[in-house]
Amino acid sequence: MVWTIISGLIVGILLGFVMQRTRFCLAGGFRDMYVQKSNKMFYALLIAITVQSIGLLILKHLNIIEVPAETFPVIGTILGSFIFGIGIVLAGGCATGTWYRAGEGLIGSWVALIFYALTSVVTKTGVLLPIMNQINKTTQVNTSMTSTTGIPQWILVMLLILITVFLVVKTIRKPKIMVPQLKQKYSGIRHYLFEKRYHPFVAGIAVGFIALLAWPMSESTGRMDGLGITTPSANLVNYLISGDLKFIDWGVFLVLGIFLGSYIATKGSKEFRWRLPDIKTIRNSAIGGIFMGVGASVAGGCSIGNGLVETATMSWQGWIALASMIIGVWFMSYFIFVKPMKKLQQVTQS
Questions:
Q1: Other beta carbons within 10 Å of 167
Q2: Sequence-ordered list of residues with C-beta below 8 angstroms from that of 307, at least 6 positions apart, any chain
Q3: Cα→Cα distances 38→32, 35, 43, 328, Å
Q4: Which tens digit of pLDDT belongs to each residue from 269-284?
């Protein structure tokens, strides 16, 4: 039990700290691909997936970890991920983003997080469970890309490496836009930990290594998986309601660690402050949290569980979920960002 607490908190604190300091936000990254035509954060995600996939290949070869063979629901993954994508636009952050932004003092993220965790429980174990089971029962297929295609995993990983390196090099070679630098306040290690701005690609490397570290840490406690946010969030609510210790596992301490790591980062950089949004933002955060909880539960994972972890295992579930999630983000971004901008432009021109 002690090791479960320590290792889960360690990985969570590292992840929360790094994501807060580097502003590693997948919701914003997916949105920017459509709204601002910027792919930097998506490429950063590809870097994180690639780093983790290389490490997993090595750890599996050395028999240090085991990735369980599973099936996945095709329709549920597509539909749930699309709904989840809609939710993270409304909530202003993905599952991990709501945890680390709650650590920054954002009340809107607290609202989204609460509704996300509650609806995860309702979908996984409550009144929505029959609906989820009905959606998922008829399309269970093998999730392993190697098993279904016959292509060895190392070849798939090499292909991912080549694609990622090509996109990263192409992006780095583009002319750089000069961004005004803030006056440096701190020096030494404090500057690097709490003040220095980091390129999204550096964030991707760091997140990839943390995601890789999660596998042996988690499996050492009997939890055969890597990073995961939705089920641990639901387990935390189940524990608070029932008091049953069976719900407390490595994943619960992971999400609590994300919150704590973000809080440490914001306090160290003196960015922490309670921020109360307007009524519209609170409403959107609540609705977004509901969509996130239902969508991630039906899809079997969120932007981290499916979009970062399952993709690195060369799983159909991960890559199909990632594509569906991005489409959901673009769909909702049109109504939240693009359409209002077009109306504003028409008014300005008339």
A1: 15
A2: 26, 45, 301, 318, 321, 322, 325
A3: 5, 8, 10, 17
A4: 888 899 999 999 999 9
29 has a pLDDT exceeding 80: yes
> Which pLDDT band holds residue 331 (cuts at 50, 70, 90)?
very high
Q: Which helix (H) or strand (E) holds 321?
A: helix 316-333
Residues composing the chain: 350
CA angle 142, 145, 146 (to 5 degrees): 105
Residue 19 pLDDT level (bands cut at 50, 70, 90): very high
- What distance separates the 2 farthest-apart alpha carbons in the chain? 67
Q: If pLDDT is split at 50, 70 and 90, which confidence band does 330 have?
A: very high
Q: Supply angle C-alpha 62, 63, 69, rounded to 5.
A: 130
Cα→Cα distances 303→35, 69, 151, 274, 349, Å: 19, 21, 26, 26, 39
Residue 138: predicted pLDDT: 78
Q: Is 222 helix (H, G, I), strand (E, B) or coil?
A: coil
Q: What is the token pair recorded at 124?
A: 């996984």
**In which element (H, E) is residue 73 found?**
strand 71-73
Distance between CA atoms of residues 259 and 266, nearest Å = 11
- Name every residue whose Cβ is closer than 8 Å to that of residue 327 and which is 6 or more positions away in sequence: 82, 85
Q: Please state at what angle helix 316-333 crosses helix 74-91, rounded to 10 degrees.
A: 40
Residue 169's alpha-carbon distances to 27, 37, 59, 163, 203, in angstroms, are 24, 18, 27, 10, 16
Cα–Cα distance for residue pair 284/291, rounded to 1 Å: 10
pLDDT tens across 120-166, in order?
A: 999 999 999 999 999 988 788 899 999 999 999 999 999 999 999 99
For 187, other C-beta atoms within 10 Å of its C-beta total: 9
Structure tokens at 2: 């002690």
User: How far apart, in whole angstroms, are the C-alpha atoms of residue 260 and residue 4?
Assistant: 16
Element (DSSP H or E) covering residue 140: strand 140-142
pLDDT of 17 higher than 80: yes
Q: What pLDDT, on the 0 to 100 scale, is given for residue 72?
A: 92
Cross-strand partners of 71: 142
